[in-house]
Amino acid sequence: MPRQEAVELTRRVLKHFENDSLDTADQVWREPRDTYVDPDRFAADLRMLRSVPHVIGWGGEVAEPGSYTTKDVLGTPVVVTRAHDGQLRAFVNGCAHRGAQVADGCGRARTFQCPYHGWTYTLDGRLKGAPARRMFDGADLDHRGLRPLPVAVRGGLIVVGLSPEVDVSTALDGVATALSDYPFAHAVHVETRRYELACNWKIAVDFNFEGYHFPFVHPDTLDPLACNNSVYDIYGRHIRWAFPFRDIVDYRDQPESEWPDQFFGTVVYGLLPSCVLIEAPGTSQMLRAYPGRSPGETVVYLSISAPAEPQTDDERAWYKMGLDGAAQVLDGQDFPMAEACQRGLEAGVDHVVFGRNEPLLQHLAAVRNDALTEETPWDS
To answer: What is the Cβ-side half-sphere exposure of residue 202, based on CA atoms within 13 angstroms?
Structure first.
């Protein structure tokens, strides 16, 4: 984030401190329970999610020729490569023989080899070798490589589509410029943790964009450090929420020239449909939420990145500590509360209410609902 933008956010937040206020919506919003529990709405969500681009990682994960990374995206195994010709590519991570995954984790490679029968692929997806190839005469193996998927790096982030028809080129229009101010194009993946939640995927995204719950859910973690004198910005369908550390008030009596170059708090981007970027001083984290097999199931991936590959045990321990801290807040506090909300909705709570102090939840609900009726959801 450029210094001038950090200063502007600080100005806005300090004004809220003076007034004991925050950015708000004009009115309340009521969202029916069917949004979270109805099988027909769940099926419509799945159709929409399969037809839109997804942010899945940092561009630095595949910045160099020979690099690759693997992700699970809405249950689809995906491998993203940067072949030795420098071109970025993505494929379904499934062998053209029987479908087993040919790549795992991330790193550098010259080829991928299926662990089941040894079929080997180049990083551009071509089938290079198949044991007992003569036994497959008539199967047209020369044209049987990995199945390609649309992919691009936008705003320094990897964006993929789950079918050839998905246009990834405009996926982050409106917010790409703001994202490009971060070093995502060079960030490397350090660790990812997977969680299974008993709640709807939208609930698993929404708690990242309101601070109303801080004193009640996070009394011993976030609330002593941060407060809800927060500000937000809308970038088309995407959003940014910034909430300050409590000590930001110490800058009130200092000239702006002495304010920090980074916003003294946490900046959270919501990149539709279900990616959450969490930027705070010294850490860059990504949360990706996908529906499970029913309206009340969600799979969440929580990742942390570093500006460069950690080289020492102390560096690796530092990033592990950062992810442990995020897990304490999320898995220890937010996730159980999200599951509690789901239980209440399944038991018959007729609708949820988003207050004027939860403006971004209103925006997310509106955008999702609109997408269900659009022929090409979230196409710019």
So the answer is: 25
Reported pTM: 0.96
Directed axis angle between helix 39-50 and helix 359-371, to 10°?
Answer: 80
DSSP β-bridge partners for residue 82? 67, 88
Give one DSSP letter per residue of 3-36, joined into a string. HHHHHHHHHHHHHHHHHT-----SS-EEEETHHH
Residue 118: strand, helix, or coil: coil
The 10s digit of each residue's pLDDT in 272-311 is 999 999 999 888 999 999 999 999 999 999 999 999 999 9
Using DSSP, state whether 271 is helix, strand or coil. Answer: strand
Q: Classify the phi-psi angles of 350: left when phi > 0, otherwise alpha if psi is within -120 to 50, otherwise beta.
A: alpha
**What is the CB neighbour count within 10 angstroms for residue 140?**
8
Backbone angles phi, psi at 292, to 5 degrees: -90, -140
Q: What is the mean pLDDT of the chain?
A: 96
- Our CA angle for 133, 139, 143, nearest 5°, is 90
Q: From CA 31, how far away is CA 210, in angstroms rounded?
A: 16
Tell me the C-alpha to C-alpha distance, in Å, between residue 185 and each of 57, 61, 68, 115, 217: 10, 8, 14, 31, 34
